[in-house]
Amino acid sequence: MSSSPVHLVITALGSDRAGIVNTITRHVSQCGCNIEDSRLALLGGEFTFVMLLSGSANAINMIESTLPIKGAELELLIVMTRTPTGSTPVRHEGFSLAVEVPDSPRIIERFTALLTHHRMHIAELMTRAQPGTPAMLSIRIHAYGSSAQALADLEKNFQQLCIELSAQGTLQADGRQDTERL
């Protein structure tokens, strides 16, 4: 009889340098943990790596006790938290949002506020400023909600916000081929 795996979320932050990802993933493997999901980003000269690990209670205990030491050796800030299994909400009516908009303060907050207003959960958010005249901001969001009506209402409000901000945007429901282009 095997016990169910324990899950741990780890975030590592520090200066980017060659080999750092390999060192962390090797350490995770040596502790007997499995990387179930991960994201890596370079922001300026800083590297950030987020991982969802699974493993036996002993493996998770080992990574929790040894990773802070390895992080100190690598000059990384390490944050860890256990997360319950099966806690991921059911993702109904998922969609992807893509926007190109003239950059200005509060632009990202306007789109995240729109999603919050429609009770949508943001699963992924990526932004990138593009220099130029005018400077442009690219926003990519994957989100999900709980009803088809909420998504229909969101589409209408998304279009209005894009018009207000002089943005070009698409909102595409998962599994749907048509998109709204503004």
Would you give an account of this structure?
About 30% of the residues lie in helices and about 40% in strands. With about 180 residues, the protein is α+β, with helices and mostly antiparallel strands. The strands form two sheets. The protein has a five-stranded antiparallel sheet, covered by helices on one side. β8 and β9 form a beta hairpin. α3 runs antiparallel to α4. It is flat. About 20% of the residues are buried.
SSE order and pairing:
Elements: E1 6-15, H1 20-30, E2 34-43, E3 46-55, H2 57-73, E4 77-83, E5 92-102, H3 107-117, E6 121-130, E7 136-145, H4 148-164, E8 168-173, E9 180-181
Helix pairs in contact: 3-4
Distance between the termini: 56 Å
* Order of helical and strand elements: EHEEHEEHEEHEE
Structural class: alpha+beta
User: How would a crystallographer describe the biggest sheet?
Assistant: 5 strands, antiparallel
In round numbers, the mean pLDDT is: 88
Strand coverage percent: 35-45%
Low-confidence stretches: 176-182
Tally the helices.
Answer: 4
Which strand order spans the largest sheet, edge to edge or round the barrel? 6-7-5-8-9
Query: What is the CA-based Rg, rounded?
Result: 20 Å
Taken from the alpha-carbon principal axes, the silhouette is flat
What is the β-strand count?
9
The amount of helix comes to 25-40%
Main features:
182 residues, alpha+beta, 4 helices, 9 strands, 42% strand, disordered C terminus
